[in-house]
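ok so i was messing around last nite and threw this chain in just to see what happens. nothing serious, just curious
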Amino acid sequence: MHFEARNTPLIINAPVLQKFPVSLSCSRMSIIATGWLRATAGSRFTGRFMVNDAQYLIAGSLASSVPTFKSSAATLSYEREGNLTGTKALDGTIGQENILLKFSDGIQIEGKLDSPIYPASSVCGAAFFTQT
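result:
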């Protein structure tokens, strides 16, 4: 079997696969943590996620108000636990059925909303991550 690793897709060539070559893209792996995220008042929100038996809190503010939302089963994706600290700019979408917030350093929060929000809103703002 032959493996090639570059900044290009990974090609795997093996005698069994000669008729069916496989191409895999190499990208950074994301680590997933579970938790919740909810609006607190006006344009503010908060959340809590468990990362390696430690609690991480997120508190943020959006540039504009959105209807009250809650995601009881949100996921936090990140590349390095060390990135989960300090203030991060964000952009994303809240509604109709889901929430998606993207932060710098490869951090992302997504989840299904407990109750739908109509219409969906594009959002931007900032949030502060801290370990408790």
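not much to say yet. Residues 1-18, 20-26 have pLDDT under 50 and may be disordered.
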